[in-house]
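dude i think i finally got it to work??
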Amino acid sequence: MTAVARKRGAGFLVGFGLVALLIAAALSYFADSDPDGLDAVTRQGCTAVETEQGERLDGHCIAQNGTDHPLADGPLADYTVGGDDRLTGVAGAIGVVATLGAAGALFWGLRRRGTGGQGEAGDTPGED
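look at this
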């Protein structure tokens, strides 16, 4: 791989990351987490009744057998930061950064490594 091709690849990745971050931060505010689509479908056939112990579902639906996710009380649960609905965009940006970081670390760890005498590290044999 030539130096020009590497610069183009790095430029593309940086641009991709910035566009993904911008989209996540700006469009996350339009996401509606209450109720989300899956939650609404699993509640079909039931009526939610507020009690002193919390919400109870009357009727027959899939959600009656459901339990909260182990991370339901986590800092980024329900598309927010710490349960603050005004921070949906921040949660989206954090999600993009975490995803790109994990993907980058995975690809960096799995990249091909050149062997001594066959060119620079990262070159594929037979490439110019």
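The longest helix spans residues 3-27.
im so relieved honestly
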